[in-house]
Specification:
Elements lengths: L21 H15 L4 H16 L3 H13 L8 H22 L2 H4 L8 H15 L5 H10 L4 H19 L10 H13 L5 H14 L5 H22 L6 H34 L1
Helix pairs in contact: 1-2, 1-3, 1-4, 2-3, 3-4, 3-6, 3-11, 4-11, 6-11, 8-11, 10-11, 10-12
Keywords: Membrane, Transmembrane, Transmembrane helix
InterPro entries: DUF5693 (IPR043748)
Pfam family, one: DUF5693
Length: about 280
């Protein structure tokens, strides 16, 4: 049978020291964030660096990549689906640095968990919301304080906070808040494809809805804030270092394609409903 016989031996895995060069990419991304934020960009970048170093230690570079790169695509012009593509590209670039700096024997074997899973889902959307501030933010905050509250705005803000809380509660394999219907849908999708994460499908679907319809700016900002949850989830997916890269990659690709398709269908539906409503 030509099968070699002998005693089993442990194969040593030593990460290449060249992976530390990925720090250059992470710091470059941090610099882009500092330049792209309209208010106190350098200070925010410095605080993120200190947070990553203090909280994650040896995994600081990987954590920093997961916090920074999901945000970069939101800092450019809102030029339709090109913004979605740009955001996806930045996220995948961050995946390269995350994987390079976070892959160690302990993390690949699942013996050491990635530090900062909750932060990767919480910080990027908050940074995206922070990027909505105007350069003359004091005047903007004054206008916001004096702005008369409307029931629709309050409801949308409450919905955004609820979805953010659900995203945090549903992280991990033993999430306490997972509806039975979603579990059945997960099982169905796993039988036909590499199942995407629902947070990513949801986030990608919101991009066409936010960018291709004539919303007021506050509505568009709210939709993009929620979309940032899905983009942050891309880096979160690849932070499961024990999962083969190919599996994570196809999860992200399937989530992007499925989410974009649903979003475009949603745009068509909203346009038809709007035309019907306006007569």
């Amino acid at each position: 049978s030509h099968i070699p016989l002998g005693h089993p031996a442990v194969r040593e895995f030593a990460p290449s020291p060249l992976r530390l060069a990925a720090w250059v990419g992470v710091l470059a991304g941090l610099g882009l964030l500092a330049l792209g934020l309209p208010v106190h960009g350098p200070l925010v970048a410095l605080l993120l660096l200190l947070l990553a170093l203090g909280y994650a230690g040896g995994q600081a570079g990987a954590l920093l990549a997961a916090l920074v790169f999901p945000v970069l695509g939101f800092l450019g012009p809102r030029n339709g689906l090109w913004m979605w593509l740009r955001t996806l590209g930045y996220a995948l670039a961050g995946v390269v640095f995350l994987s390079a700096l976070g892959s160690t024997p302990a993390t690949l074997l699942g013996l050491q968990a990635f530090k900062g899973v909750s932060l990767t889902l919480l910080v990027p959307p908050l940074l995206v919301a922070f990027s909505f501030l105007e350069r003359h933010y004091k005047e903007a905050l004054t206008r916001l304080f004096l702005h008369p509250l409307r029931l629709g705005e309050v409801a949308l803000a409450a919905l955004a906070l609820l979805l953010l809380a659900l995203a945090l509660l549903r992280r991990g394999n033993d999430a306490p808040v997972v509806p039975e219907l979603e579990l059945k849908l997960r099982s169905l999708l796993q039988d036909v494809m590499v199942r995407p994460r629902f947070k990513e499908v949801f986030g990608h679907a919101l991009f066409p809805l936010a960018l291709l319809l004539p919303w007021p700016k506050w509505v568009q900002n709210s939709l993009l804030f929620l979309a940032a949850l899905g983009v942050a989830s891309i880096l979160n997916t690849f932070s499961h270092f024990h999962t083969p890269l190919a599996i994570s990659f196809f999860r992200v690709v399937n989530g992007a394609l499925l989410g974009l398709s649903l979003g475009l269908l949603g745009v068509m539906l909203v346009r038809r409903l709007r035309a019907w409503w306006l007569g």
